[in-house]
Design brief:
Length: 446
């Protein structure tokens, strides 16, 4: 730790918590083990041409069999929190009907292991892996899926609601709707922008129904949702760029935040979207619009909006990630301050940075992974979080994405976000320099 790091660390305080995050399909493997049913990602990855390296999550990081080792690695980082998702089809193979006790037992054992290490569990119910059985009934285009999700949420809360620090309904519903149903980049691979609009509503409806179902269980866990968000900045001061940036922010951030905190969709988005097939029933907005205990914010990049042809590109002064994303830490500060100003009067709860991380082309050299670029990335973004806290935003925790390299969706195993390097042939986990830095950082923060 250098003097700059020490000064920055003092701005967070001892009550601020530090963690790492993963998701089920990206790390678990064990695709056919323990009674697990297939999810839409099993189907999608086994469809030729969908994944860049033609890989699947059948084995991934083999966390299903190596969870004890992985919890030990989490503990080595000195974090106090671990965010993970439950595979719905592992605990309910079809997404409806009978529960799979062997699947629930796996997560119970994982919770036991975390408790032994004094690591608080932060559960996400849905990280994009809908049971294939529900997809065959229409998936998220079918309104009934929202009710099946609420039943699933209720059962998880009944079993684990007093063993977890928090439960999030969804992770990044924007991705589920727009990448899964809008452009077909993610499972289930549908290309229909109007369908994506309806899916986004059913996702929000399912969130509201699930919140009520879990509240009825009187759980001690804090309840909320995780949204991927970004600022939208015009490339120039032209009226066209400014208007397009406002539209981009409305259709992404406000489209999900407004129903939750204001009880309505943003008018600017309604005015510009094709609403011909958009169906909202009378009580839907009241179901969606209810108090949260926390809001999870995932941040990776900003939207840089240009209406020119070809569009202007940002200078990317800090470079690009291995995903091709601009490194822009001040966007996190601006985003947090912006949503605080807009939604504080509408019940904005405490905020967790539930994902923030970076992919680089990491290599093992002499049994080490030297990733100073990742350390620089994290330091810059923590500085942005500190500035937002100083400005009055109620941020209570930070999760680095991700604990270890894993299956990165349609990129397969070509992109590495982890603090631990994973050799996929041997399943060896190697702590990168960033893991050691993060450990030392947390020690300094107390």
């Amino acid at each position: 730790m250098n003097a700059t790091d020490l000064a920055l660390a003092k701005q967070f305080g001892e009550s601020f918590f530090w963690g790492v995050a993963t998701s089920a399909y990206q790390i678990e493997g064990g695709a056919a083990d323990g009674g697990r049913g297939p999810s839409i990602w099993d189907t999608f990855t086994h469809t030729p041409g969908k994944i860049l390296d033609s890989s699947t999550g059948d084995v991934a990081c083999d966390h299903y069999h190596r969870y004890v080792e992985d919890v030990s690695h989490i503990a080595d980082l000195q974090v106090s929190a671990y965010r993970f998702s439950i595979s719905w089809s592992r605990v309910q193979p079809l997404g409806y009907g009978a529960w799979n006790e062997e699947g629930f037992d796996f997560y119970s054992r994982l919770l036991d292991e975390l408790a032994k290490k004094n690591i608080l569990a932060h559960i996400t119910l849905y990280h994009w892996d809908l049971p294939q059985g529900l997809q065959e009934q229409g998936g998220w285009l079918n309104r009934d899926t929202a009710h099946h999700f609420a039943a699933y949420a209720k059962e998880v809360a009944r079993r684990f609601g007093d063993r977890a620090a928090s439960i999030a309904t969804h992770n990044e519903p924007w991705c589920t709707a727009n990448l899964g149903y809008g452009n077909g980049q993610f499972a289930p691979g549908v290309v229909d922008t109007v369908a994506a609009l309806q899916v986004s509503h059913h996702l929000l409806l399912s969130h509201g129904l699930a919140m009520s179902a879990m509240r009825d269980q009187h759980v001690s866990a804090k309840l909320g949702i995780v949204l991927n968000q970004w600022t939208a900045e015009p490339a120039t001061n032209s009226a066209a760029d400014i208007a397009e940036a406002q539209w981009e922010y409305a259709r992404s951030v406000q489209w999900f935040m407004d129903p939750i905190f204001k009880g309505s969709y943003p008018q600017i988005a309604l005015d510009r979207m094709d609403m011909s097939r958009f169906q909202v029933e009378a009580d839907d907005m009241a179901i969606i619009h209810q108090p949260l205990d926390f809001l999870g914010v995932n941040y990776y990049f900003r939207a840089y909006v240009s209406t020119e042809n070809p569009p202007r590109k940002p200078e990317a002064k800090l470079g690009l990630t291995d995903m091709g994303w601009e490194i822009y830490p001040q966007g996190l500060r601006d985003l947090l301050i912006g949503i605080h100003k807009e939604y504080a009067a509408h019940g904005l709860p405490e905020i967790y940075i539930t994902e923030n991380g970076v992919a680089f082309a990491d290599k093992v050299e002499d049994s080490r992974v030297h990733d100073q670029n990742r350390i620089n990335f994290v330091r810059a973004h923590l500085n942005a979080v500190a500035e937002a806290k100083t400005a009055g935003v109620n941020i209570q925790g930070y999760f680095y994405w991700s604990l270890m390299d894993n299956f990165e969706w349609n990129s397969g195993y070509l992109r590495r976000f982890g603090l631990y390097y994973v050799d996929y042939l041997t399943q060896q986990r190697i702590p990168k320099d960033s893991a050691l830095w993060y450990r030392d950082w947390i020690r300094v923060c107390g």
